[in-house]
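::Amino acid chain::
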Amino acid sequence: MTRTPDPETTASALRVAVLGAEGRMGAEACRAVEAADDLELVARIGRGDDLEAIAAAGAQVAVDLTVPAVTAQNVDWLVDHGIHAVVGTTGWTEESLGALRERLAGAPDVGVLIAPNFAIGAVLAMRFAEVAARYYESAEIIEMHHPDKLDAPSGTARHTAAAIARGRTAGGLGPVPDATEKDPLGARGAVVDGVHVHAVRQRGLVAHEVVQFGGPGEQFQLRHDSFDRGSFMPGVLLGVREVASHPGLTVGLDGYLDLGTGDAADAAGQG
């Protein structure tokens, strides 16, 4: 569904489309865009709707909150039509990201943000995890989500594991110690960038992550909890407002935040 832009809306309002508007995250994003004075929601795209409605509505930025099976195709279409994209759909691989970078090379003015998590606290936790990782011998991640989530481990957990791996490399640390020899049932979880990741899927949860670090005689924990999808909206709106100023591909909302200099900032995901 689309609507004609309100003639009373100021000319400076950024015109936004939401893909996946019928889902819980998509509906929340629509409400957030409509409540923002500097943004105008011009298109709500649900399953089966023609993407041409986005261009017809004059959208400048599109928020993709669909499903992994279609998100890459959607973003390709947006890039080809010169529309900036803010993507919260997970399931991206190094191969699909590489293909997107190649496509963006032919559209140098278009920006794409792919964010594993839009919650500001989650982004900060990932940054803090990278800093802490260089000082602790052991590190593991427990991520907890609702049972309707389609992928595991979560994109946030993968992004966190990559940050921890960078921190460990910067700290000159070797592999995380683990003497396990037999684990026929996979009780030790997945291994992402050398870090064990444990995924919980349980009714009543939204999005939660615990990062545990261990050293001689101590444990250090970072925890972030999203109890409501509204927690993601400040990050979504930040992405919508900033994406045009960051042409090319940015992976992670940290690429749009001033989180200091150093190894972590240098690896923020610009591509």
User: Anything to note?
Assistant: Residues 155-170 form the longest helix (16 residues). Residues 1-5, 261-271 have pLDDT under 50 and may be disordered. The helical segments are 24-35, 52-56, 68-80, 94-105, 120-133, 155-170, 233-242, 263-266. The domain at 120-227 is CATH 3.30.360.10 (Dihydrodipicolinate Reductase; domain 2).
